[in-house]
Fold this protein.
Amino acid sequence: FLITISELANRMSVKKNKVVEIITQLELNNISNDILDQETAQLISEEMGYKVILHLDNKTEFLLLKNRNINHIQKILPRAPIVTIMGHVDHGKTSLLDKICSTKVVNQEFGGITQHIGAYSVFTKNGKIIFIDTPGHSAFTAMRARGAQITDIIILVIAVDDGVMPQTIEAIKHAFLAKVPIIVAINKIDKSENNINHIKKDLLKYEIISEDFGGETMFIPVSAKTGKGLKNLLQAILLQAEMLELKSDYEGMATGVVIESFLDKGYGPTVSIIILEGCLKKGDVCICGMEYGKIRVIHNENRQEITKASPSMPVLIYGLSGLPRTGEKLIVVKNEKKAREVSIYRKFKLREKEFLSKKQKNIENLFQNLKKDTNKILNIVLKADTYGSLEAILDSISNLTHTAFEVNILSSGIGAITETDVSLSINTRSILIGFNVRADLTAKRIIEIEKLDLRYYSIIYNLLDDIKLCLKGLSTPIK
Ligand code: GDP
């Protein structure tokens, strides 16, 4: 991803000089030819009070910059730490989390049944802690894969009688890569306490140095069975959090990260998120991965309706168009139309990626296919006026069931049918389809000379009906 200084200035609606000024201030001397890479552009935008959230399609995110000027709506306050428990299987991750949360479950008025939303808040005298309930390391990895970093502290659970094991090392690697501090919880000390020093020595290899060995990592002996040491562990988490100086803006437009999403019979798409920044309000319009929507209802983790949510809070939201994946980012935007456009665009991009990889395979097999049974493949080159209609058409085509022919979308895109589309069509004997778009002059001339099969549509049903006829072999696909 590259962007010119002028373009960046443009997207933030500021003068180019202003951006240059910031570059000088930040002493970013290594910029050549006015072109900025992603990190530099991000740094500059953030310095200028803009919030940058990157996704698959960086361009789209930059379009959102204008909405997210946080200069005048900031209220930075401390927030609760978000903690993930990791460790080798059977070392007691689940037991530890259960024990920590058990007091809370008993205290609440909902008969002890907590709705599983993937995160729990634990209240202590000295502050609140949010625990992410991840089975194994998968959710953590899923989040990292989408660039979402919500864990502030990792609790590395090691069973005293088992010591450092492969998944212990894996967890350490995760923590290092994500630059998240570790607190080691030596578990099952009701069995024995003999091995603690041995574990500390073992961990030196991985640069995890306990405080009594001159390092900075806290080692807390605990028992998930008896509850011994748990208070110390919570204390250690709050201490570590204090050192991290975790703070967020409590007033601006919210951002968050998806923990889980599922379909609720009554509510439809239900998404549990943790708020990272800002204040999420009922009625806010948001984009979340490839989905978007207006938030109809917000529930806290006890499924009580609330009207707004602040940083570090795990909440359930209802009103999104579908189910985003774990680790997907949620951002509130001002404009519902824009949210919808971005959602459609992202879906289209994904689609395109899938089609491209399929196309690649198709091209590789093209000669074979042509040799094999030309008449059984219906190649299509498709152009449309909007991503929305393109999406809808591709969707419907992929849902067609047929036997006689295989549909093969060789290329699809937005805009008029051009010479490139036409040459692809000649080489692959494809039908050219224009949905609410026409062929340009050059293309038209070649189409006439080559007598290519060009079809225009403005109604998806008509297009599909024709394709179905072709598939049944009732209409000759290629002239
Ligand atoms: P996970 O795979 O890391 O989630 O481990 P679990 O929480 O499922 O625990 C694995 C086994 O260890 C279970 O049989 C637990 O009852 C047991 N266990 C967990 N914590 C303790 C502990 O502190 N003391 C003892 N004695 N057993 C424990």
Summary: The radius of gyration is 28 Å.
